[in-house]
Amino acid sequence: MSSPVQRWPGDKPIAVVFNVCLEAWSEGKAPGINPMGNPLPPTVLDRMAISWAEYGTRCGIQRLLRGLARYGVRASVAVNGIVAEQFPAVVHAVADDGHELVGHSYAMDVVPGLLSPEEEQANIDRCTKLIGEAAGAPVTGWLSPRATPSADTPALLAAADYQWHGDTLNDDLPYLQTVGERDIVAIPFSTDVNDMPSMKYGAAPERMVEAFTENLAAARQTGETALIDVTTHAHIFGRPRGAHFHEQVLEIATSAPDVWIATRAEIAAHVRQTSGTPVG
After folding, report:
1. pLDDT given at position 1
2. Residue-wise over 266-280: b if at least 16 C-beta within 10 A, else e?
3. What is the DSSP letter of 184?
4. Tell me, what's the pLDDT at 280?
């Protein structure tokens, strides 16, 4: 399952994908990560954490979309089904701006690796319908919460006509994964350039810019074909300070002549074209 990719379109050695996560939790559930360091007792619902996460759909996604528009960049936006269910106009606005909509399970607490095959099939069907109807376009890519699939996830997605998934961290470059009589493009999800460390470890937001420039430098030094993910969460870097540094990354990427900025759907299409494998 080695990657067929030698170079990206235009003979460019580096591809950059801007991922935006637009997330929510099931009713009665709260994020496990939040700004407050003192956890509540396990039996208490953390309404502060719920409020903190709600920022993404209320304010954060709009700010990130404005920044992406300023630089003419289309992102891959991972959306939970519950977001499409409760905020269909927000999801439709993302699609209207030309961004790729990515299935991200029904909610962040619905992790495919914890589901039975029947539950997972129902989850995929539910999300595909909710997101597709809100966006007004089919959903062809999938990224599980935590990028944590079950053993059945790739086959279930391929059977549902998904073209790619990001539930793997086992390679530098994308590759075709055969599942039964179908195939699906596996696009590894890299975590080096991500806003999550600012919440988990207290990293300064500008560290994202440093991480991106360091990844660019490493790719250029080795001369290897590279794929760099830049991942933001609407409820984390959708806030003013985080969005400020996210736009610095956008500026660096869009001004680099050796970088191809792509959505994950475009990455998958390039893999299929390079390998001579038709869709599905």
Report:
1. 62
2. bbbbbbbebeeeeee
3. E
4. 56
Q: Rounded to whole angstroms, how far apart are CA atoms 253 and 261?
A: 8
Cα–Cα distance list, 116 to 121, 164, 174, 176 (Å): 9, 21, 27, 25
Which residues are CB-contacts of 2 (< 8 A; sequence separation ≥ 6)? 175
pLDDT of 33: 85
- The CA-atom distances, in angstroms, between 244 and each of 4, 34, 66, 67, 88 are 36, 21, 11, 9, 27
| CA–CA separation, 9 and 106 (whole Å) | 34
Judge whether 224 and 171 are in contact, CB under 8 Å: no
User: Would you state the torsion angle of the CA atoms of residues 237, 238, 240, 243, taken in this order, to the nearest 10 degrees?
Assistant: 60
Strand segments (E) across the chain: 14-22, 76-79, 100-103, 141-142, 164-165, 175-179, 182-186, 193-194, 226-233, 259-261
What interhelical angle do 240-254 and 61-70 show, nearest 10? 30
Q: Is residue 256 within 8 Å of 249, Cβ to Cβ?
A: no
> Bridge-partner residues for 20, per DSSP?
77, 232
Return averaged pLDDT per consecutive 10 residues of the chain, 280 residues in all. 84 98 96 84 92 97 98 98 98 98 98 97 98 96 97 97 97 95 95 91 92 97 96 97 98 98 97 81
Residue 184 contacts residue 162 (beta carbons within 8 Å): yes
**Cα(278)–Cα(280) distance, integer angstroms:** 6
pLDDT (0 to 100) of residue 29: 94
DSSP 111-163: -GGGS-HHHHHHHHHHHHHHHHHHHTS---EE--GGG---TTHHHHHHHTT--
